[in-house]
Fold:
Amino acid sequence: MYDFSGQVVLVTGAASGIGRASAERFFAEGASVVLADRNLEGVQSVARELGQDERLHCLGFDAIDRASCIDMVNDALGHFGRLDVLCNIAGIAGGWRLEDMPPADWQRMIDINLNSLFHITQAAIPALVESRGNVINMSSASGKQGQPYGTCYCASKAGVIGFSKAVAAEFASRGVRSNAICPGGVKTPIYDNYTFPENAEMALIDRMRSLPGFGEAEVSDITAMILFLASSEARFVTGVAFDVDGGQLAL
Amino acid sequence: MANSLPTGRAAYDFNGLKVLVTGGTAGIGLATAQYFADAGATVTITGTREAPQQYSDEDLGRFDYRQLSLLSRDSIDALCASVDALDVLVNNAGGTGGAQTPYAFEESVQVNLNAVWQLCQGLLPRLHEASAPCGASIVNVASEMSLYASPWFPGYGAAKAAVVQLTKTLAAQHGAAGLRCNAVLPGSIPTRMTRSFADDEAIHDAVCQRTPQQRWGDPAEIASAVLFLASAEASFVNGHTLVVDGGYSITDA
Structure:
């Protein structure tokens, strides 16, 4: 229902979940798509399922490593020669009791969920200015809402919103839009594999799970929002953190 | 400043659906009604004048037209009673009363808040009967003054802020029954309501300067957001207020 033909979209975290579904939908709507993920075999398998079209390009990279992020973007730009939409979707999740969280786990999550957006967007921004393109950053309802055992995840996702708005403010005059999306729990591997600490207080978790819409979103609900924000339908929308949570944040 | 991507409009399919846009004779309401009609919907618009021909500047012939005064409970009730089927309600009508003749506080709250509630209340039975594939929904039009103070329109600002919260309340109330309620929050858009500001060079330029995208928006850009929220693409979006303001609200002057 959109026409993204002639446009190039870079999707990180494209081997599974929201990233994979977004890459598939952009491809279906005519775009050329760079599928980037730590799991190169994973994105290659996605590309095979999509018929190995020349509009697809697979790249492996490690979001924890600045050099790897920059190399990935440069490879993508070299391959298709332009970039119209950058989807920063790669991320990890997990819960720890604050008292017990090892600093190395904190650092790893912040590196992947937040710092990689800096490395990737910094490398991609000249191409986005050239195409008057836009950035979509994956935040979370956790970026707006305190969640038990989510000190690091919530902090990283709140950071994504701030980063996204600042990019919007800094680059609007050069024609680049930047928006964030805040899903409630979505049925993806991240959600299925989310671990709470062993001695978690279940009452706290049950309270969160009882919110309307929690964990009920399908990936297609999120990709629909991504495509809208990426399209010219949203050409006056920038700096927004869009809730897709079935009403979770309304209460 | 031109800021369009090389993509065309989205191909929404609202065929067979019934849409009511209050205040559809000009500006954001008209752009929204046109976009819904282009996407196949049967669209009813309202205006304060008796007949659509009294709006000489636009051809409103493709829409079903009803007279509606948001100041009159009787008028609101009569409209609701005359609607026999509805899939999408767009509460767009409202206003400040004009820069020269602003509504009194109570009038402004009636027009911009109470009327929205009264229309929702009156039309909820029709919306709950709807069998639209995208699910029935309400889209309310909020305002920059939901977020920011204007020294001139205290009633308008208070009412528009309340519309954001009413949107969340309706979302929480009716989500379980499959009815969604969202809002759009337009930035500065040149319309009949804002013309005296848009035409004032100093105000026009001040808005551009404060807006990261450095321009006023277009009614069609708000219509885009309304159609997205009403469509199946937004089937899990509920209680959200979508800000469409070229980035105005992220800056702090």
User: Anything to note?
Assistant: The domain at 8-241 of chain A is CATH 3.40.50.720 (Rossmann fold). The two ends of chain A are 33 Å apart (CA to CA). Helices of chain A lie at 17-28, 40-49, 66-80, 103-131, 151-171, 189-192, 202-209, 219-230. Chain A has a mean pLDDT of 93.
